[in-house]
Amino acid sequence: MTSLKVVLSTVNDGSMLNRHDTEDAAVIENRRRFLEKNDISFATATRVSPNMLERATVTHDTDYCRYIYVSPEFAGDGMTGRESTAADALITDQKGLALMLPVADCVGAIFFDPIKSVVMVSHLGRHSLEQYGAIRSVEYFTEHYGSNPADIKVWLTPAPGKESYQIYALDHKGMKEVTFEQLQRAGILLENIIDDPRDTATDPDFYSYSEFLKGNRNEDGDHMIAAVIE
Predict the structure, then answer these.
(1) Which residues of the chain have pLDDT under 70?
(2) How far apart are CA 208 and CA 230, in angstroms?
(3) Which CATH number is 4-229 given?
């Protein structure tokens, strides 16, 4: 049975995304430094990039559950520049290929089936959750790899609490509230969900895009979650 390494950055590690410049040298160096200090190869990492701004204003793409398989040839995509294809999750069954997701309020979720040796890093933002993104992430495993949902382990990043961020289209529920509901509906066992309960809206160790837009944070940025099969 394979094992999985999961790492999560904080504000102290620097921002892992510049929304306006995909080639920001400082951001790229932050990514490199953080991954390598955790013994993860920067050269074999690939970035999950939903690219929400462009999809909302330019391409008008309304499918927020787009998943892409990462082969060795795809390694490095989006790490030092623009991604080749916007996606809401990346999946691989290759050892040593790290998947990373910059996030600053949305739920970053890692799905791992140790029996089938498959990992997915999924961006569960408001748009994705409204389209049942957590359920559809699990369905990808069952449809493509024959996974049993009871075998899948899930890691969740910090996210804003319901008091500061609600999903109005889903009965004003909170991000984590909806995520847990969908995971359990998909057959994920509660004991297999490893949740980081910290609140990005109130915890200064994490970036919060919504609080930045409200004027409550001086710096815009993203922290990072990354996973690699060992």
Answers:
(1) 1, 51-60
(2) 31
(3) 3.60.140.10
